[in-house]
Amino acid sequence: MLSDTTSRIRTVTTPSQFGGAPCPSLIERKPCDPIDCVVSDWSDWSVCSPIDGSKTRTRTVQVKPTAGGKECPSLIDSSVCSPIDCVVSDWGEWSKCNTDGTKNHTRTVVVMPQYGGHACPPLWETQVCDPVDCVVSDWSRWSSCSPEGRKNRTQMVVSPALYGGLHPPLVDEGVCEAVDCQVSAWSEWSSCLGARANLKRSAFGGQAQLHLEIR
């Protein structure tokens, strides 16, 4: 066990005799020189705690203090870990458009946030698809004229409209051009007192013509 004092001794080489002077003290003590505490260097920081985000490091006593030397400093040190923000990947490619006219893309977490770092941004994003107009064929030939003087033509859908795209009409109606009445040349004259007439009806609003001559 260490002591705060040091001592030294001496022995009697010739004892006093015949009234000679007695021997002086054979032991001498004095306080030891102070020895301060000596500690090692700090260890590496520990892994950050997932509970409170702290880290620690330690050191050990190499020489204990004696004789009033300086006491050992703290042997453990704690610190708050630096915040780690969330890190995410780049956005992936857009998906194909869904039936509701939307598309989406995603990204993933590369580094999770820790120790009060910024939270992760959204990992899913949705966007409305661009409208796609209907694609149609060329117009068909005009149909024959109806008795009412109407005609129509049609076109076929090549690819349908998507996501709110435009859809043109597939049927077009028109009015037939008016056809005027036409008559033949006159026939030979009939017998007297007879009458001859020649009539040809019009079509689609054309004007009918009637020629009648009596002799």
TrEMBL record:
Under the heading InterPro entries, the entry gives: SBSPO, TSP1_rpt, TSP1_rpt_sf, TSP1_spondin_dom
By its UniProt entry, which SUPFAM superfamilies does this protein fall under? Answer: TSP-1 type 1 repeat
Highest rank taxon of the organism:
Eukaryota
List the Pfam families. TSP1_spondin (PF19028), TSP_1 (PF00090)
Indicate the transmembrane segments per the record.
Answer: none
Q: Which residues form a coiled coil?
A: none
Gene3D superfamilies reported in the protein's UniProt record: Thrombospondin type-1 (TSP1) repeat (2.20.100.10)
In this chain the Spondin-like TSP1 domain maps to 37-82, 86-134
Q: Which UniProt keywords apply?
A: Disulfide bond, Glycoprotein, Signal
Q: Does the keyword Glycoprotein apply?
A: yes
PANTHER family from the UniProt entry:
RPE-SPONDIN, SMB DOMAIN-CONTAINING PROTEIN
Q: What is this protein called?
A: Spondin-like TSP1 domain-containing protein
Q: Origin organism of this chain?
A: Lagenidium giganteum
